[in-house]
Amino acid sequence: MPLLEVAEHLFTTGNLHLRDNEEEWNAVARAMGVLPENVMLIRQVHRADVAVVARGRTGPWGRPDADVIVSDDSSAAVGVRVADCAPILLADRGRRAVAAIHAGWRGTAERAAIAGVRALAAEFGVDPRDLVAAIGPCLGPCCGEVGAEVVDTFRAAGHEASDVAAWFSPSPSGRPYLDLWRANRDQLAAAGVAPEHIHVAALCTKSHPDLFHSYRAAGQRAGRMLGAIKKREKGEGRR
Question: Phi and psi of 101, rounded to 5°?
């Protein structure tokens, strides 16, 4: 079941830079059908901490330090900003809650995708088997060159040796390449998401600089893309 069947969502491309341009953020809000102040973001810190946007919340949203954001509020869109890291969106087919996850190599080592699935279960009673997942454009295995210390970080985090072997491959230079697509797909499946409900864009941001923002390609000049999602109420069709 495609994600669009159960939740409003979007992945932006390089046409938006999503820094401090109010017009761009207003465009995102319109696309998601929410007020601009209800585009809920987090201060991403490359870990697996979780922020919760609960229905009936009060007070201003202060952008907590987190890399996972979960919500059961249909008036809010939750999102993560990326420029090579993997944006992951989750939606419950029972339409109880959604999640947005930021997973670069550090977040993937910290199991951010698994943290998102577990948070939906703990906060909103979502069964992982009812989830649909989408992994958006990010650095692909073709361009995901990292240092040997990254492999050591995954090992130190307790990942199975077979997983580390599957997620990293040697390169002609001798430096390992990380497959963010596979690592996060495997983690979602390990957390209980049905493999047939995990959709991977399989588009490398660095390989397509005409379409996407990529820190590897543009460095500090790179803009940011957004993966955002909003819960759709039961009985509510597509807009």
Answer: -130, 135
Could you count the other beta carbons within 10 Å of the beta carbon of residue 5?
Answer: 11
**Residue (of 200, 183, 230) closest to 74 by Cα position:** 230
* CA–CA separation, 68 and 49 (whole Å): 6
CATH class of 3-139+181-231: alpha beta
The mean per-residue pLDDT over the stretch 142-154 comes to: 96
Pairing between strand 68-71 and 50-53? parallel
pLDDT digits (tens, 9 = 90+) for 36-58: 999 999 999 999 999 999 998 87
| pTM greater than the 0.85 cutoff | yes
Domain ranges of the chain: 3-139+181-231
Residue whose pair of structure tokens reads 């993966």 in the numeric block: 227
